[in-house]
Amino acid sequence: MTGTRVETGVPRADEVLMGGLLPESATLVRGAPGAGKTIFGLHFLTETTDPDARNLYINLGEPKAYLEATAEGFGLNTDVIEFLDRSPAGEAFQGDTTYTLFASGEVEQPSLVDSIRETVETVEPERVVIDPITVLRHLAPDTRQFRTQVLSLLDFLKSMGATVLLTSQAAASLPDDDLQFLVDAVVTLDNDAGHRTLSVSKFRGSSSRTGPHAVTIDGDGMQVWPRLDPTRHRRERPASVLPSGVPEFDRILDGGITAGTITFLSGPTGVGKTTTGLQFLSQAARDGERSVVYSFEEGRRTMLARADAVGIPLREAIDDGTLSIVEIGPDELSLDEFTHRLRSEVEDRGTEAVMLDGVGGYERAFRDRESDTTRQLIKIGRYLRNMNVTGLVTNEVHQITGAFRATEQQVSHLADGIIILRHIEYKGQLQKCIGVLKMRSSRFETGLRTLDITADGLRIGEELSGLRGVLTGTPDWHEDDP
Asked: Are residues 218 and 256 part of one domain?
């Protein structure tokens, strides 16, 4: 119990349910075969620290041996579970014995309801799972009597102090609308092409988190990854800036990047976006602030080698625990898992700067699982702002030279600041330049400067005041300009 809530035992599902299920309530867990309903039920029944606790599993589908093997495979202790095996392979359905749903006074055959009542009165369980409740539909002569008996059964279980969980095989050919009407809460588990989700469509007497929320099932069982809701998070910090540590660059930025803002580093491949971002994080480490890089496009080893080549001491920061580099490849995580990791970095480890290296790689990593990655990127940005975390986002513009474009994916509206990096052709050679296009919270220089990436780090040159058309990639020199 958590206050007046009953914990589900599924990691982070209670966060979606605002603390857990209500005591002495009935919850319908519905989904197609393979969605994880039985695993959810096993988690629910084994969630106890009392070795003398007794919970009841009324299994109408899978036999007891299968359920025990499944629980053991996930490391769940079934010692606290009493099984009432009414599966087709169970003893009760073997031989000449047949069952009906109704009380034995109404019919001549043995009653499944009576069997359940007797077991409940003997075990006195705190938690009961009926898996699947839809099997009972076939034991009733019509829908009205099925609903009447199920409602009577739920009333009896709740009157005995039990919190009840029912499972339902949800399918277009087997609607369960009547069951959804009878219960206090409805949890739907989906499995669409390997993308598992959980959503709560009904929770009588409580609010719940809007879904769907990602679900994973691995060797540790089921886990829920709640969808990021920026409005639920806020952290106050004293006003500050994140400097680059390069004096001339910080002069352009009026001291650095304001804490709690999102800055895009935008430009074509090879222009120095990632290196520039790492320069900021390296300076944060020198100042004792923790930061993390989520790399969607290149490996950790490559990033470290690049930093070594230009004199950015990333390895020292990693050894000191002030910097982490995390690689994330396509289909490795769901977006909800990723945002959970991000939250853990910020809320548990006190991270003050976050770099997302590659908007294009971010979209490729989550595109197959998330229909609107840009919308979720907006939420990530709002979360970082609300938590007063400085965000850096590298964004590749595909044109190496030519007509200027701030961002390729048209996400510039997400940024509080945009630092542009460009290749320009001058006297037959490629030259890098850097400038600030937007910086909402500070005064900044508007001129473009040359940028050199040397073995000693970033070097910011003189303002390109004699050039016109720099953003076209082919500037003209005007000697008479001041």
From this structure: no
